[in-house]
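Severity: low
Component: inverse-folding endpoint
Summary: output formatting inconsistent between runs
Steps to reproduce: submit the following structure tokens with default settings.
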């Protein structure tokens, strides 16, 4: 029984201090890493993309649970302990911008499913995914929801350590071995 329990526990992982990075190859080509971030800890603050290496790491450290084999969720994706990624006004339409808002238990606007086969975050109960708006890699580009599309570089997110650590991103992406002790990132997946 102990080994069966250990097997289940090792597949599902709750991670704190995760940097969520875009898989759009334009970031790699530009020699930068684009992280989901916010500029401030306030309701309504836009969810943006920002160069991971020039942003205050507190503004890009997310709490999320994921599993390497099966979807996890619905769940809230938290920052600052009490703010969640939120679909602005709950509008289910391509191009709706994302923001952070005080976490509200059960809020449909804050429920996400981590999809391991596509490396996406899908808004629960919809066909919308977190999307890099217009594929723009410039700092402060506000992220949006868009209809989930297979193999869309604008919707793919994967794991890697915090840039302040020495663990490589592909090690995390392939093993999902993050812990609460070692900060890690969700990084681009190779195309």
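Observed output (run 2 of 3):
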């Amino acid at each position: 029984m102990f080994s069966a329990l250990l097997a289940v526990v090792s597949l599902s992982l709750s991670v704190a201090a995760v940097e969520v990075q875009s898989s759009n190859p334009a970031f790699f080509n530009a020699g930068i890493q684009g992280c989901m971030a916010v500029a401030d800890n306030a309701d309504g603050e836009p969810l943006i993309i920002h160069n991971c290496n020039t942003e205050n790491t507190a503004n890009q450290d997310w709490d999320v649970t994921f599993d390497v084999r099966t979807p996890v969720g619905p769940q809230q994706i938290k920052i600052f302990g009490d703010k969640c990624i939120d679909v602005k006004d709950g509008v289910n339409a391509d191009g709706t911008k994302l923001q952070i808002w005080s976490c509200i238990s059960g809020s449909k606007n804050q429920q996400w499913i981590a999809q391991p086969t596509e490396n996406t975050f899908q808004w629960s109960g919809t066909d919308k995914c977190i999307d890099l708006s217009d594929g723009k890699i410039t700092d402060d580009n506000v992220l949006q929801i868009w209809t989930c599309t297979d193999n869309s570089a604008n919707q793919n997110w994967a794991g890697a350590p915090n840039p302040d650590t020495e663990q490589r991103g592909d090690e995390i992406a392939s093993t999902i071995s993050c812990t609460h002790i070692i900060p890690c990132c969700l990084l681009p997946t190779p195309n």
